[in-house]
Amino acid sequence: xxxxxxxxxxxxxxxxxxxxxxxxxxxxxxxxxxxxxxxxxxxxxxxxxxxxxxxxxxxxxxxxxxxxxxxxxxxxxxxxxxxxxxxxxxxxxxxxxxxxxxxxxxxxxxxxxxxxxxxxxxxxxxxxxxxxxxxxxxxxxxxxxxxxxxxxxxxxxxxxxxxxxxxxxxxxxxxxxxxxxxxxxxxxxxxxxxxxxxxxxxxxxxxxxxxxxxxxxxxxxxxxxxxxxxxxxxxxxxxxxxxxxxxxxxxxxxxxxxxxxxxxxxxxxxxxxxxxxxxxxxxxxxxxxxxxxxxxxxxxxxxxxxxxxxxxxxxxxxxxxxxxxxxxxxxxxxxxxxxxxxxxxxxxxxxxxxxxxxxxxxxxxxxxxxxxxxxxxxxxxxxxxxxxxxxxxxxxxxxxxxxxxxxxxxxxxxxxxxxxxxxxxxxxxxxxxxxxxxxxxxxxxxxxxxxxxxxxxxxxxxxxxxxxxxxxxxxxxxxxxxxxxxxxxxxxxxxxxxxxxxxxxxxxxxxxxxxxxxxxxxxxxxxxxxxxxxxxxxxxxxxxxxxxxxxxxxxxxxxxxxxxxxxxxxxxxxxxxxxxxxxxxxxxxxxxxxxxxxxxxxxxxxxxxxxxxxxxxxxxxxxxxxxxxxxxxxxxxxxxxx
Amino acid sequence: xxxxxxxxxxxxxxxxxxxxxxxxxxxxxxxxxxxxxxxxxxxxxxxxxxxxxxxxxxxxxxxxxxxxxxxxxxxxxxxxxxxxxxxxxxxxxxxxxxxxxxxxxxxxxxxxxxxxxxxxxxxxxxxxxxxxxxxxxxxxxxxxxxxxxxxxxxxxxxxxxxxxxxxxxxxxxxxxxxxxxxxxxxxxxxxxxxxxxxxxxxxxxxxxxxxxxxxxxxxxxxxxxxxxxxxxxxxxxxxxxxxxxxxxxxxxxxxxxxxxx
Lengths: 642, 261
Prior knowledge:
- By secondary structure, chain A is of the alpha+beta class.
- Among the domains of chain A are: 39 residues, no CATH class; 153 residues, Transferase(Phosphotransferase) domain 1 (Transferase(Phosphotransferase), domain 1); 134 residues, no CATH class; 107 residues.
- Chain A contains 18 helices and 17 strands.
């Protein structure tokens, strides 16, 4: 019996687990050990489960006379780890004891396998891998297998994660080190098979070390052992099948544990990476990290690729993974210097009076959008917006959209610019609107060097209706205004951008980082959907409707052109709704909005609303073309007769 | 040597003598113990009997708990008897819903409530009066209690421990009976001491020699015994649960009762 008499109290204690033995019951067997045996090994090794009670320090000491066992520092399904000191060498080591059941009884085949694997592990000599010093087993009816390893004075990643989310910067510093270790081991033909935060250690100097390499292969075998007692192998295989923490295991590892290769490690690392960035494990449908937290969008691609279900779609080498990660890390560092932001304290209706931005947001790597009453920047949204792409009430820009739009491409209620599209009046090089004026004018009332429309006053055509309209008493003043605006918008644009550059330079040159804390930029670039996107979608829809009306009313070929534009817009909108539009438009760099954001019923309604005019437009265009072909032939016939 | 499950002496319980303990699988095939109690003991005769059996198996921990709460031997006997009479008579007892289907926790909570509210010296249930469902061996229980550990742990923790002991005893007894029914009684007696694995020593070789078996064959038999033991243990625990999925948690709780000291 396993009894040890304590002379003081006369109580018996179990030498296996240390709990006191009740007298006269259970034939003297230890109830705690009985319960423990009842739990293993069918239960999955989850933390918190009493599947394996580690030996006490006192019980262990006599088995390792050359070591001074100091304390138990960890336990889990893979065994228990003790901090110890090699007496002769006076060096701290970690002693890992495998669970007694893992060998499934005395098995020579297991011992050979153990030795073979352990020798392979001992060859791993890398600063990022916990070094294996010795291995062996203590003889006995149930042999006790142990490893003697390098002692790492620090914490493991699980403990770090428990303290909160790791910053992207730290994560980008940790992952390449793990990749290095993995690549080294993979080059030696060794797969870890159990990468998880508990196995990633960080010492006090911040160096990362991966522990428990190849242990999963030793403890959980997937080859049937020919000399084992039948029945014992069942336990082993069962344990082998669940070896490796389920949530970090690659899909092929759960399905066919015997056919796993080094790419399973890459998957597990992807999971750990994801967890470091977002604080959560990826769910059944993996949401990109940049959607959950403020991280660089480019990391999405890297993490998602590592998490691919099929191994052949993942990174094939840990070193490639590392390069990708390091590139992003370097890219972030360099872009920080090139960005700038200023936001005024005063606000009106929640928007700052003045907001200027330049360059990329260091956190996300995307172009910042200036948002405010007056917004100036690469992308600007505001009541008065000036920028490369400007949206708002008064929009001045290369591409401008708004109530009053001035720009190279301007769209709005009133538009002035190179290509001016408007819902009311457009004035520009090419102007299209109900009232269009300019070099080439398309519209109900068109006035220009070249005009097409219902009532046209151009060099070629003099429609009396048009002339009457364009000679209304208010027209001259309007003309003056328009000409002025046409001349001035570029000046205003220049002034705005000039102010931006001047302020940026005043802040200390190109190397200055943003003067505001990162948190301040969050509302501008947050994960909330921008209110402008649905507004722009609506505007787009309005333009399409205008196109439809105009197309119906105007003569060929103008109506066909407008119809074509409208048709194109509807096609784009429809594809986006169905989630088939794969490209990010440069106008909306953050626009990943697709129909998937809508409930399926709403999506269907929208699709219907788009489909009907789409069909109508298509039919109309085809009929117009048909009529033209017919008419053209007839006219040719007529002309020939004259 | 086996002190738990005191032998029924004297008064026969309501259930017929000779009714064999049903195999654990179909004990509560139709109704869970919670449903039986909640329905005021108006379940089928089988389920009522099954509940009685459960009470017979685990009454000692309750008795010990009452003693540890400071009651004298006679009072503890009366209280325990009264408690079970109430329970098996179908009078509602508190604590049902709060325990989420765990018989052990339910018994403890009900007993606590009972001790706090229901006990009234003047209403001491006379022995022989009312329907007595269980015949409990007080004498053995008293001896058992006296030799039990006098630890500093709380009565609740000790209740859990003794519950676990009762549970394990039942499991071992069930195993013994199963092996005996198959004609392998002596084998079980030889294997039982080897149930828990050990480091060091050549017990298995000795046992094989004494049984006249090959060592390998003995190992197989031992392995099979452990497997059956686990199965029986889980089934035994499942009997006391409404939701079989909680068996791991219950095992953990029982295990922790020993871990504390």
